[in-house]
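Troubleshooting entry. Yesterday's outputs looked truncated, so today I'm pasting the complete records for two proteins to confirm everything comes through intact. If either block looks cut off, that's the bug. Protein one:
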Amino acid sequence: MKAVGLYQYLPIENEQSLLDVIIDKPEAPQGHDLLVEIKAISVNPVDTKIRAPKEQTETAPRVLGWDAAGEVVATGPDVEHYKVGDRVYYAGDITRAGSNSEFQLVDERIVGKMPSSLDFAQAAALPLTSITAWEALFDRMGISAEGLDAGKSLLIIGAAGGVGSIATQLAKQIAKLNVIATASRPDTVDWVKTMGADQVINHRNAIDEELKAINTPQVDYILCLNATDQHWSAMANAIAPQGHICSIVETEQPVNLGLLKSKSASFSWEFMFTRAMFQTADMIEQQTLLNKVADGIDLGILQGTMKEVLMPISAENLRKIHAFLESGHAIGKVVLAGWD
């Protein structure tokens, strides 16, 4: 089958960094696995981080990709929730082969039914970011998904990217929070307002000072999607007593948790691959939340976050998207659809 893979970890400008390859089609699915025919994929920062230059080589092509939409073509004997012909979307498992291939095996417990109102490309923009945002808001920070925390304040740092785009909507439309988003360019400011942000501040400046300027010196929750190290002190200043901070961005050096002590504030990480990586007992929660997001899309409560689609799925187009993400100017999600 066709796929895009790598043998070496190289700068994206190098044409050998991602290659069109032919690999074996996966065997018949076992256990809870589905065999999915991939129709569209999306790219996330995790793809670029794993592909980034390092002293390592692969004897067989390594296939990346952790966002996909497609159709179930076979099911394992333990599958309970899907059948052949179902349209699905998912982010997959970082410990297994990725979605940049014509067919992929994926555990049904981390797969959702695709929104019926979206096409494959639009659906492929959503899984990884939706899982990340949902888990960060409702699992890690404990915000009520039933609106019981309505009116509380949430700061989203780096809100114009893929995770921020859906997190803004979940926080506003599902949790009924007051959402303050950060963005630094006119186009990103416009985008986060479209996603539902109540107010917008500039993360190029000190976040705590920006909040004071809009008469909101402290917020109940902070979701950090950009430069945890850079914003740590400002976040510690801005978080309300007994508030919660969650980040998805690894630090370059240890952060001073002591800054949160007097406020009894908490900090947590969100890594959406945790459940699949460790086969946690609640793995199926990812299926559940993806189905809730799909329902929200179909009911018009939530909107898609795809900004652009390229065709076909190829090494050349994937290199373009990796380079775009590495530029730091991405808004929403860029998707690839179809195979030559």
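Protein two, checking that the full record survives here as well:
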Amino acid sequence: MVFIRPYQESDFEACAHICRATLPPSLSTTPITAKLAPYIWTHQYTLLSPATCHMLATALAAPTSSPSRERYPSYIASVLSTAVAPPPPLPPPSSSTQEQEEPFWIPDDTTLTPSGTAPLQAKKPNPAALIRLAYDPRKLLQLTDSSNSNAPKSLSSQGWRATMHIDLLPAYQRRGWGRRLIDAYVRSVRASGEDYGRGAWIGIAPDNAGVVQFYEKVGFRLVTPSTPSAVEGEGTGGGGEDGIHMVIDIAQA
């Protein structure tokens, strides 16, 4: 019988498998990306917010909210650093430059066009940027605004302080389980006692835009264009070229 139950510590490896098995094409073709994915979009949720994580046979929906910034070092120490070496520090910005950032996408040298440029389909994720993202809760959880004064404020700063990641294996899709998992997630966020503000936000890779309609049906709404030209990551950025972002309002308990 299929049913939804709370996450258990014994589900750790199963959650990693599900995350890798359901990655969009842009993130699944590079072995290093597949290895890193659960450490960016799964394991910190189950460690830092297990009461709001749910399993459906082999499915996962998990939120984390702004207080996780204080708890994030425990995730780095107990999980992330045991599998992924930390990135080297970036050079400090000078008085005339903004904070240095590594590009999330780098060209695939085998598919460059004659002009030397590459569309998103001809680029691959930058492992160094992925590792830096995993080690930086400020960007991963949208806890601070961009150093670029012209960039839009992060969704966390705008009031959506919880974030959600849901993976559902194909055998369980289009059967109503995604909606039920999100309903369970919303109920657990309300009961968490955390300051989740206006509700939750999610990030979607542009080549996974087909899921937007599903999220709209369960109560999310778009806050960035649905056909951007690039994406910074599945759970990062503030809009435009950073990817597709949606929010759901969750009334306070």
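Both blocks look complete. Sanity check on protein two: The chain is about 30% helix and 15% strand.
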